[in-house]
Amino acid sequence: MPEKNATNVAKLHRFLVVSLELIYFTYIAQLVFHFLFLLHLFSLIMKKYTIQKSPFVVPTTDGKLIEEHFGNATTKEPKISIAHMVAPPGWSEPFQTPEFEEYTYIIKGKKQFIVDGDTVVLEAGQSIKIEKNVRVQYSNPFKEECEYIAICLPAFSIDLVHREEE
Questions:
Q1: 56-161 has which fold?
Q2: What gap in Å lies between CA 129 and CA 66, rounded to an integer?
Q3: For the Cupin type-2 domain, which residue ranges apply (predicted)?
Q4: CA 52, 58, 62, 63 torsion: positive or negative?
């Protein structure tokens, strides 16, 4: 008889364990379902685009206007920065060797680049890509302002630009 009671207790124990496992897995499945449902609702609500109406205006002391639309300063985006810039006549920056690629598109005026010792002048409608880890200097030695768009990959960061002291 004690063997029969032990067998019944073992069966009852197994039944309780299986029942609890079933309840637990059902609960987990419900949580996952609710999470996925909420995620789906969230994706329906969230837009797949961002309109930038308030770019960050970077404070400068050299008269250059820098409006960062996307990037580290504005959106905390480390992968890319996009900035609208206006360089006044006579403006220049020190040489630098950035750890990012920089693309520049000239909207108005002219801009001078010294890239690895080569002097390049771009005019409105022209663009340039400068590879990362290349020594470069940007300037506007001309009599009219230069308006342009700059895109950096990864995003511009003062820690990655490596400007030389003048």
A1: Jelly Rolls (2.60.120)
A2: 19
A3: 84-151
A4: positive
Using only the alpha carbons of the chain, give its radius of gyration. Answer: 30
> In what order do the strands lie in the sheet containing 101-108?
56-57, 65-70, 81-87, 146-153, 101-108, 127-130
3-state secondary structure of 133: coil
What is the reported pTM?
A: 0.73
E strand spans, the chain: 56-57, 65-70, 81-87, 91-92, 101-108, 110-115, 118-123, 127-130, 136-140, 146-153
Nearest-CA neighbor of 78 among 158, 156, 164, 138? 156
Percent of the chain with pLDDT over 90: 69
Sketch the domain layout of the chain as residue ranges.
Answer: 1-46, 56-161
Segment 18-74, tens digit of pLDDT? 777 878 778 888 888 888 888 777 777 778 888 999 999 999 999 999 999 999 999
Within 13 Å and on the Cβ side, how many CA atoms surround 29? Answer: 6
Name the 3-class secondary structure at 68: strand
Cβ atoms 109, 141 nearer than 8 A: no
Q: How confident is the model at residue 1 (pLDDT cuts 50, 70, 90)?
A: low
